[in-house]
Amino acid sequence: MIRAARIKRAMSVRELGERIGASRDLMQRIEQGDLRVGLGVAFEAAAVVGVALFAAEPSRLASERAHLQETLSLLPKTVHKRASEVDDAF
């Protein structure tokens, strides 16, 4: 779900990693669902791309996951870097 949201926002793995302070390797492990990844960094990545990791109904989350798997199969493997930098300082 994090990967789909990242690609939808036209962010590269490196860009998302920089925003949360994680390496490209760690970001790839997060997106692949590696169980050795710290929960905090996975939550942070999800928050940055706007992914809700919990749902009130478990069946809803399962259906969303199935839909995302279908969507991911259609998305490109890489994303081109944006022309301008994002200034998200509040």
Sum up the structure in keywords.
90 residues; mainly alpha; 58% helix
Quick structural overview:
The chain is mainly alpha-helical and 90 residues long.
Detailed description of the structure:
The chain is mainly alpha-helical and 90 residues long. It contains 5 helices and no strands. The protein has one domain: 434 Repressor (Amino-terminal Domain) (Orthogonal Bundle), CATH 1.10.260. Helix 2 crosses helix 3 and helix 2 crosses helix 4.
Q: What would CATH call the architecture?
A: Orthogonal Bundle
Beta-strand percent range: under 5%
Number of discrete domains? 1
Number of strands: 0
Largest sheet: none
State the end-to-end CA separation. Answer: 26 Å
Sketch the topology as an H/E string, one letter per element.
HHHHH
Ranges where pLDDT stays below 50 over 5 or more residues in a row are none
CATH fold description: 434 Repressor (Amino-terminal Domain)
Measured as a percent range, the helix fraction is 55-70%
Give the quaternary arrangement of the chains: single chain
Radius of gyration: 13 Å
Q: What is the overall silhouette?
A: globular
* Derived structural class: mainly alpha
Tell me the name of the CATH class.
Mainly Alpha
What's the rounded overall pLDDT mean?
Answer: 82
Number of H- or I-type helical stretches: 5
